[in-house]
């Protein structure tokens, strides 16, 4: 493992507090991930990434900045990576999945704010996440009221661009979102100093489409009767995809998918025959939030799918390729991203349809609808989701939690009872 202390120091990070974070993460990762048996060999790549998560990729980003590239930090799957890449920019996800960052977030936010937002703000203000220190610009979006106010805080010392996402999916809303993407493109061009052309945007569209296809191959393997990879490992792949170079991400996901497909052909499974198959739906699980997957998969069940922003919503659907003009390309990008069924939309019957479809495709025995505490959008929509699942005859368990471990035993008891009820 390389020594990145000088890099962190130059980034102005709180080294003492960061050391505390670095001391905790390897232990947690070892308990959750390295304790698993019969893992795919391809997971060694993601093990390596997590072992140096605040070193390897940040060092790459800094080197790219020295060569004139700009780094855009994003928080949401609605921000179109294609636009940034077309201007020779780099996209990185930003930290927000650990209880470690929550206290620093609560110093400026109400305690009744969702942990994802508190952790993101805390990671920046506490100076313990290098990705927040590196980004030349943050790109927010209007998926919830808590985020909209958080962007105002985060934008006080780093340039912040906020994309206004329509709350409905009518034709005029798609037109509006297309214009938002065009406005974003103009901002990106100004920051990078690079013009976006139809040729560069087409290349970026193809690159991100290939990344999505590669991730979809891994998920497709999880549909097999013999489950070749744990839900925890698949989740980790998705979480790291937000940070990694897209071409490398596609290559490593395809390599993993090759191995999983061979495992299926050879009848290899990481779970005993008859293990109950669980799908998670609801709020995103940003790295290093592995809590619920770990509880489920140490309680006798397997997570085979996630209908979340760190799951199928991230990679399902391609941007249509082959458009001749920028206007046509921006419209194609808008249509693909408006196909993501976030709880911020009304009506949102498309998400219910997705959940029922995925439950059938992945042959799940039950669904756990998970809501991060104080996320009113997904909490409220849980009523509709759970009613639809019950009508479809699919067992469902609704859960509210946060990043802290205090409720782990209670959750384990409830989840074990749910799994037992599945028969």
SSE topology:
Elements: H1 5-10, H2 15-34, H3 44-51, H4 56-66, E1 71-74, H5 81-86, E2 90-93, H6 102-106, H7 115-125, H8 130-134, E3 137-141, H9 145-154, E4 160-163, H10 171-192, H11 198-221, H12 231-241, H13 246-266, E5 276-282, H14 291-297, E6 301-307, H15 312-315, H16 326-338, H17 349-361, E7 366-372, H18 376-391, E8 396-401, H19 408-421
Outline the structure in words:
The structure is a single chain. The protein is an alpha/beta fold and 423 residues long. Helix content is 54%, strand content 10%. The protein has 19 helices and eight strands. The strands form two sheets. A four-stranded parallel beta sheet has the order 2-1-3-4, with helices on both faces. Helix 11 packs parallel to helix 13. It starts with a helix and ends with a helix.
Gist of the model:
The chain has 423 residues and is an alpha/beta fold.
The biggest sheet amounts to: 4 strands, parallel
Strand content is 5-15%
End-to-end gap: 46 Å
Shape: globular
Total number of helical segments?
19
pLDDT average, as an integer? Answer: 97
Structural Rg: 21 Å
Order of helices and strands: HHHHEHEHHHEHEHHHHEHEHHHEHEH
* Structural class assignment: alpha/beta
In which range does the helix fraction lie? 40-55%
The low-confidence runs, each spanning 5 or more residues with pLDDT under 50, are: none
Number of strands: 8
Strand order of the largest sheet: 2-1-3-4
Number of domains: 1
